[in-house]
Amino acid sequence: xxxxxxxxxxxxxxxxxxxxxxxxxxxxxxxxxxxxxxxxxxxxxxxxxxxxxxxxxxxxxxxxxxxxxxxxxxxxxxxxxxxxxxxxxxxxxxxxxxxxxxxxxxxxxxxxxxxxxxxxxxxxxxxxxxxxxxxxxxxxxxxxxxxxxxxxxxxxxxxxxxxxxxxxxxxxxxxxxxxxxxxxxxxxxxxxxxxxxxxxxxxxxxxxxxxxxxxxxxxxxxxxxxxxxxxxxxxxxxxxxxxxxxxxxxxxxxxxx
Length: 257
Known about the structure:
It is a single chain. This protein is an alpha/beta fold. The chain has 7 helices and 8 strands. It has helices at 4-16, 33-43, 72-81, 135-147, 169-178, 187-196, 220-248; strands at 26-30, 55-58, 63-67, 89-98, 108-117, 152-160, 182-184, 201-209. The chain is globular.
């Protein structure tokens, strides 16, 4: 019987176009091709997979960034495929909708957990297993945010596969009842599949809209403004966090699985 590892080795290179040996020990995940371009320009490194479903790039220090696309199925796919290179840590850089009045556009969120409303994670873990990040990875990210004097919040994120739900008052009331700080489409999946695959993982989310009010719903214009003002900082925090962990040689896992 062919092993999962053999499949992952073949598919990771097929999906990204990057040779397996070029993947680093630490991986940044994102939904944005612009982050790949910025990373490539900053470190003068090649981008692989521009004709593939996913794009990837690795700098001279061995830090890799992957654009895996949008949504929880794609998030599960990349977290499965990354078992091929057995990374020491994975950090997701994504955007989210802020659900609390105190959560402003441009704030960062370090989720302490995620509600598994997307369904994909049910294929990996029983429903009662919480979707959680790796604490020590988030500790490094938190310190970087503090060092830069940036606003950030912690709380539980609701992950969903739904799009265009902003008109659905029943769904919005559910979000209020859950007391979630933000909503996105990937975080719970990355946490759950990372746990299943024994990969240390985290997420740094950028609040890009406030969808609970009509005037706060994301538009092309508002999203472009958030990217213009905050995407560089978002990417830089991710790069600095994982680079520092690597340079210090600290182990994210507190125990051996």
